[in-house]
Amino acid sequence: MSDLLRTPLFPLYSQYEGVRCIDFGGWELPVQFSGIQKEHEAVRERAGLFDVSHMGEFTVTGEQAEAFLQHMTTNDVTVIAPGQAQYTLMCYPDGGVVDDLLIYKLAEQHYMLVVNASNIDKDWAWLQEHLTPGVILTNASEQTALLALQGPLAVEILSKVTGTHTDTGSIEPFRFVQDAHVCGVKLLLSRTGYTGEDGFELYVSAEQAALVWNGLMEAGADLGLVPAGLGARDTLRFEAKLPLYGQELSPTISPLEAGLGMFVKLNTGPFIGHEALLQQKNDGPDRKLVGIEVLERGIPRPHYPIYADGVQIGEVTTGTQSPTLKRNLGLALIDARHAALGTPLEIEIRGKKLKAEVVRTPFHKRTRTSKTPSQGAEQA
């Protein structure tokens, strides 16, 4: 896999005996370090540390930066203040999704966009195609590493290695500190998450990423912190019903079909895709993303067909045996007329149609004792 891209942390992977890397969108990334089940449980119960440095980071500056992003994305950029992050989407004119992303407001008319790794080139080209005077775009992806510390003990672990001027526990959901000091390194520290648990993201220069990774792993050793790979990242986000681009979102799946209408502000100024999405909302989406449970022995996988009354009405977008719940669950995009809770369905698995039904989502929702993140972008 020598022709694949590697993150600045790749040289550290070999120190973990059970690590297994795969080709993920052109990147050589760890699917697991010690086992997906073990890593999943660690994040739910203690904490896990993810290398997500393959993500893309763009900066948007200039006197027209806010207006440009308001035109390019579906959420309302004007409501966020410096130090605040926002989940949003970029759409095509027909309402299909270019990408889902996070916008960080660093200062007035100064933003950072965090985009999905497999979409970096496409997103960059899309933004450049619509660039207007008074806006400067910079691609900082290669210079930026990104670590994600996730789990109920994330605050305790991070507080061990954070400078005294930064109280990690006081950072609100979807807020960030630009000049936090972690493991003696100055970085941007945010609190969003893509696992359904509490957690932080650490945006650090590529050259200093290994120092921060090793410092966090040492600080969390006595609290059960483990390195976690893409496998656990996928099962965790799936249980929390957080979308993955290419599965729950795509050029042919709109935000409204995916249940992300709260991030589509149709009452603000027009953005690309506004007209199509307004029409879709007024008419009601023909399709809807729902949770399903297979009631017989069988695990749902992406693209498995879903039937109602003998007619195919959609397909699975993501599915697995839930590591937390030990149930065979899936997300499926189906005909909206069959989306009510409890609706009996059938799923075709290896040529056999098995009984299934529509169930409530998210499949896992942690008990919150204080304000915590509720929605993240793919960021994988």
From TrEMBL:
Span list, region Disordered: 361-380
Keyword set, alphabetical order: Aminotransferase, Methyltransferase, Transferase
GO biological process assignments: glycine decarboxylation via glycine cleavage system; methylation
The GCVT N-terminal domain, residue ranges: 17-267
Gene Ontology cellular component annotations, sorted alphabetically: cytosol; glycine cleavage complex
Source organism superkingdom: Bacteria
Residues annotated as binding substrate: 201
Xref: HAMAP family: GcvT
Family listed: Belongs to the GcvT family.
Name of the protein: Aminomethyltransferase
Organism expressing this protein natively: Paenibacillus barcinonensis
